[in-house]
């Protein structure tokens, strides 16, 4: 490992949706002696939300937010945020004895503009996976329901009712597909961004890891990427995919398992949420064809756009308060969308 000699820490952001394989990819990359990849720092999300605290804070959440906003409004908040992040990453690197830190936090899709403003020069690794497979993993791992109400058409009323009935955690997981996937897809052409497809990663791990290491400026010698190695660091963390603790080597068994895990109704829900256009754009035309041959319909761009409008409005309302949305706020959500 080479010394940084006072230079800022070398940070790489690994971006991808939850259940897309980011833990596996980060684990394989940190086999390299120059790289450390903590399970999930969530650091940049916390920095973006600096000053916003739980409404139960005894000092008063609104006062804290107003005071910090006033104070930070008189300085360059970007410089202050960069200084804090640099200090945190630098200390982590020093303790680990590494040169590059890979910050793998799946929900960074919600803060892409903030990441760009704080670390415009940082390399990104963007991991894409078949959305049907992601949905199947959400269902099997976290119990996320995917079957829509088939008795009523997709409408503002039915979707607003969905927001009222489902817990926030479930809606957030669905929002990853509805809102997060198109946002990440739009970043594929960003400079200093390396694109990885999960299906290629598990089929050819050595080649894909070597390609990424070259892009990060790492010496490729001595990296056995297809061997899982030890993942003890995950056992002591609350974050990251625990399933890799059970693996001895990378395998491609999960690539097609979604075909037996999802019902036709669930495939229809995923197709509606993501949209046939985006599936084809991301290279998953064959997967869409399989779903259509099973009975899935392409219900058009309007259905997907309706989902995006509803989820975007819910997300905006949800981000302004600490508790779940009330019935009145769901009614407001419906009113906003009808006006939009």
Automatic annotation (TrEMBL):
SUPFAM superfamilies this protein is in? P-loop containing nucleoside triphosphate hydrolases (SSF52540)
**Has UniProt tagged this entry with the keyword Transferase?**
yes
- Signal sequence segment: none
Which InterPro entries does the record cross-reference, listed alphabetically? P-loop_NTPase, TPST-like
**The entry's keywords:** Transferase
Q: Name one GO molecular function term.
A: protein-tyrosine sulfotransferase activity
- What is the name of the protein in this document? Sulfotransferase family protein
Which species expresses this protein natively? Bradyrhizobium sacchari
């Amino acid at each position: 490992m080479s010394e940084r000699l006072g230079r800022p820490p070398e940070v790489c952001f690994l971006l991808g949706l939850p259940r897309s394989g980011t833990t596996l990819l980060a684990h394989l990359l940190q086999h390299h002696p120059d790289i450390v990849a903590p399970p999930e720092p969530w650091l940049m999300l916390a920095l973006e939300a600096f000053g916003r605290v739980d409404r139960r804070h005894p000092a008063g959440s609104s006062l804290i937010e107003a005071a910090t906003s006033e104070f930070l409004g008189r300085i360059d908040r970007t410089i202050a945020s960069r200084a804090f992040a640099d200090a945190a990453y630098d200390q982590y690197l020093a303790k680990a004895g590494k040169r590059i830190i890979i910050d793998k936090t799946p929900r960074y899709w919600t803060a892409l503009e903030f990441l760009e403003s704080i670390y415009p020069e940082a390399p990104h690794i963007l991991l894409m996976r078949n959305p049907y497979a992601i949905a199947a993993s959400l269902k099997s791992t976290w119990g996320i329901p995917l079957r829509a109400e088939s008795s009523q058409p997709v409408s503002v009323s039915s979707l607003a009712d969905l927001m009222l009935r489902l817990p926030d955690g479930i809606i957030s997981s669905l929002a990853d597909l509805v809102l997060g996937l198109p946002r990440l897809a739009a970043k594929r052409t960003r400079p200093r961004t390396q694109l990885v497809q999960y299906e290629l990663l598990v089929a050819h791990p050595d080649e894909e890891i070597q390609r990424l290491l070259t892009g990060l400026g790492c010496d490729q010698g001595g990296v056995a990427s297809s061997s899982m190695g030890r993942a003890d660091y995950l056992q002591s963390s609350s974050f990251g995919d625990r399933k890799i603790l059970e693996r001895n080597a990378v395998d491609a068994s999960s690539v097609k398992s979604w075909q037996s895990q999802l019902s036709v109704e669930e495939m229809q829900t995923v197709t509606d949420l993501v949209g046939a256009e985006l599936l084809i754009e991301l290279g998953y035309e064959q997967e869409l064809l399989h779903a259509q041959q099973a009975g899935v319909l392409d219900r058009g761009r309007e259905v997907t756009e309706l989902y995006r409008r509803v989820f975007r409005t819910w997300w905006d309302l949800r981000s302004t308060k600490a508790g779940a949305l009330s019935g009145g706020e769901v009614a407001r959500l419906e009113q906003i969308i009808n006006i939009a």
